[in-house]
Every structure is written in C-alpha cells, then in structure tokens.
C-alpha cells in the first residue's frame, strides 16, 4: 500500500513549457492528501529556489539532489561537498573559466552574469542569484554546484572532483554533488522519520538525477518526454506533465 509519494519538480510536477503545475496535478495532490498519503518534494533545486509550487503543501523536502532533507521545517539530513573537492574545483576554474552556480544551505550564487547563466535561469524560470566566486564563499559549506558545460568536458571535470559525481539531466549543464549523495539518501531519511519503507512509496521523475529515486521507490513513474535511461529505471511511463501525466499514473495504479 502506497503511503508516501515523492515528486521531482522541473519537468515532472512543474511543466518546463509553462513553468506551472498543471491543474490535473493540483487535483491529484488534493486527492492524495484526502487519502492520508504523505507528499514530498525531491528536487535538484535548493529550498530557497523552490518558488513554483503555487501554494501546495508538502510533508517534507529533499533538495539539492538528496544533499539536504527537511521534515516539518526541521533539517534531518545534510551532505555537503567535501572542502577538498571545493578547493580542487576552485583551482580548476581559475585555469578553465566555466560558468557555475554554487549552492549553500540557504543561498545560490553564480560565478558571473552572462549569456550562459541567463539561459539556465530562463530554462528553469530560476531565481537570479548573487555573483560570487568560491574564494568569497570560503568556509561556507557547498551542497551542490551546477557547471554550465557540455558532455565533452565530463571526464575532465571528474578528474578535478574525485569525491563528487556529475548528474546530468540536460545537455548544457551538470549538477555536481557528493559521490555518496543522491535523491535516494534523502528519501530514506524522510521515510525513516515517518517509519515507512521503500515499498510503501511512489516516485515521479524525468531526468538522470532521478534515477536513484526511481530505483529506490517501491513504485516509480517516468514522465512522458523523459530520456531512455529514466524510462528503463521506472516501473511505468506516463504522459508528459501538461498531458495530465501525474493524475493519469495515479489513477492507473488506483492510488487515487
């Protein structure tokens, strides 16, 4: 029996076309609440950049791809990037000027304002961060970095980040998180908090950073339009967000 549902945001709960939650998803969330099912956000976004949920209420938030988990306003899990990798990446950037976003527990910074960062902000309808480099953020825990580079630099950048993993869900940028962190770690913390098991939860996602989440959940759904590896990791593939994908999947499995 499903007692908890986890939702990615961009491309899953929120349409990448309209940057809105489809009305059918609002209906689905309300029906889940009426059945007493707990609702969680499980996103690559930091909490300070989650501004697109249109008043919907959730029991917990797994953010920065599993690096932070909070329930009822209380943080129960934190997994920052090691200071060694932050310093290594800072040295790499000084020789290889790549545009980046740096995410702390409560803020987002960008290395500079330029066409690349503007494209990222527009794609995700993201907040406009302050400009700051890693030198300025020295001593502040960094939970996630987003490098605006293509796949041709993946192997090179991995060498500069030996204790991190690159999670790419778009061809023009990659999320950088600790190697021992992904969305499933945040899910486990949330489920443990409520005394629930993985086979009692359901997850919805669409990107490569959702793979561990989908594999961890007892029942998992890939959104329409997702990449092939996401579909293969999920129990079921539904329609795109704007084609009532969330509602359709929940009705298909008779969850609501």
Describe this structure in words.
By secondary structure, the chain is α/β, with parallel strands linked by helices. Helices cover 29% and strands 23% of the residues. The protein contains eight helices and 14 strands. The strands form two sheets. Strands 5-4-3-2-1-12-13-14 form an eight-stranded mixed sheet. The protein has a six-stranded mixed sheet with strand order 8-7-6-9-11-10, with no helix packed on it. Helix 1 packs parallel to helix 8. It starts with a strand and ends with a helix. The model has no long low-confidence stretch (mean pLDDT 95).
List the helices and strands and how they pair.
Elements: E1 4-7, H1 23-34, E2 38-42, E3 60-63, E4 68-71, E5 74-78, H2 83-95, E6 100-103, E7 108-110, H3 115-124, E8 130-131, E9 144-147, H4 154-160, E10 164-170, E11 173-178, H5 183-193, E12 201-205, H6 211-216, E13 219-222, H7 228-233, E14 236-237, H8 245-252
Parallel strand pairs: 1-2, 1-12, 2-3, 7-8, 12-13, 13-14
Antiparallel strand pairs: 3-4, 4-5, 6-7, 6-9, 9-11, 10-11
How large a portion of the residues is in β-strands, by DSSP E?
Answer: 15-25%
Radius of gyration: 18 Å
Continuous helix count = 8
Structural class: alpha/beta
Mean pLDDT: 95
As residue ranges, the low-confidence spans are none
Tally of DSSP β-strands? 14
How are strands sequenced across the largest beta sheet? 5-4-3-2-1-12-13-14
Order of helices and strands: EHEEEEHEEHEEHEEHEHEHEH
């Amino acid at each position: 029996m499903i007692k908890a549902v986890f939702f990615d945001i961009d491309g899953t709960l929120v349409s990448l076309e309209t940057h809105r939650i489809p009305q059918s998803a609002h209906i689905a969330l309300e029906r889940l609440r009426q059945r007493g099912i707990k609702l969680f956000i499980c996103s690559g976004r930091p909490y300070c950049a989650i501004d697109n949920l249109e008043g919907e209420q959730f029991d917990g938030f797994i953010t920065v791809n599993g690096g932070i988990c909070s329930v009822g306003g209380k943080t129960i899990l934190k997994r920052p990037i090691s200071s060694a990798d932050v310093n290594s990446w800072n040295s790499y950037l000084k020789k290889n000027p790549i545009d980046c976003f740096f995410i702390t527990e409560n803020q987002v910074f960008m290395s500079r304002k330029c066409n690349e960062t503007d494209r990222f902000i527009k794609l995700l309808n993201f907040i406009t961060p302050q400009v700051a480099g890693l030198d300025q953020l020295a001593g502040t825990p960094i939970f996630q970095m987003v490098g605006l580079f293509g796949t041709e630099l993946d192997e090179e950048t991995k060498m500069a980040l030996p204790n991190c993993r690159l999670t790419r869900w778009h061809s023009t940028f990659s999320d950088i998180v600790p190697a021992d962190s992904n969305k499933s770690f945040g899910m486990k913390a949330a489920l443990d908090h409520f005394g629930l098991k993985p086979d009692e939860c359901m997850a919805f996602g669409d990107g490569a950073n959702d793979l561990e989440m989908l594999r961890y959940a007892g029942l998992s759904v890939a959104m329409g339009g997702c990449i092939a590896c996401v579909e293969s990791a999920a129990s079921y593939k539904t329609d795109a967000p704007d084609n009532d994908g969330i509602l359709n999947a929940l009705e298909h499995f008779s969850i609501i």
